[in-house]
Every structure is written in structure tokens, then in C-alpha cells.
Amino acid sequence: MVYKLTKDATVEQLRAAGLDDHYANHDRALFYQNASGVPWTAAYIQAKGDPIADLYEDIAAEEKARATYQWLIDLTDDVDLQDGLKFLREREVVHSLRFREAVEILKAEQGAKKIF
Prior knowledge:
By secondary structure, the protein is mostly helical. The chain has 2 domains: 1-44, no CATH class; 45-110. The protein is built from 5 helices and no strands. α4 packs antiparallel against α5. The longest helix has 31 residues, at 79-109. The radius of gyration is 19 Å and the shape is elongated. 3% of the residues are buried.
């Protein structure tokens, strides 16, 4: 979405949108960072090694993404962009629900000794 929204922008338009630093470093290429410009790092991936704890981390990540998509929807009046963001937001809701279901299955089976 970001690429589609900026691919035809002029340098002047990018500058006016506050994207001149990004353009100077990356042209119009995608560079994964948060809204404050902090680059994405694999250190953001949380894993404890306990399936239940890890699923709760996944649930939290899905809910944070859902909230972010909602805030992005609130920031734009572009209906097509809103539609894409709404799809992504709803996908996060479904992921969160499936992870919650998995937690309940693991809790129910936690004490069972199974041999495979």
C-alpha cells in the first residue's frame, strides 16, 4: 500500500509529506520502520519456548496490529485505502481468535501425557 501510494509522487510531494529523509536514504523502496522511523528488527519477535506464553505474545501482536490498522483508517479519507486496511484489520481479528482457540486447546491438554 505504501508503495502504491508513493510510487508516482514527485520529489516535491515527498518532501511536502515529510518523506524527504526516507527518499534520500531509500528512494521509493520499502524500508520497514515504525511511524517514528525506527527500523524493524528481528528483536521484536518474542519467543519464550512455552507454547502458551508464545501464543499470548502472538495474540498481543495481532491486537496491536488491529489497533494500528484502525488508527490508519482514521487518518485517511481515501476509500480504497480504507477498504484495504479494513481487510487487514479484520484478518488480525481472525488471527487473534484462532490463537485464543489454540491457547484453550493447549490448556485443556496441558496435563495429558501423550506419546506419539
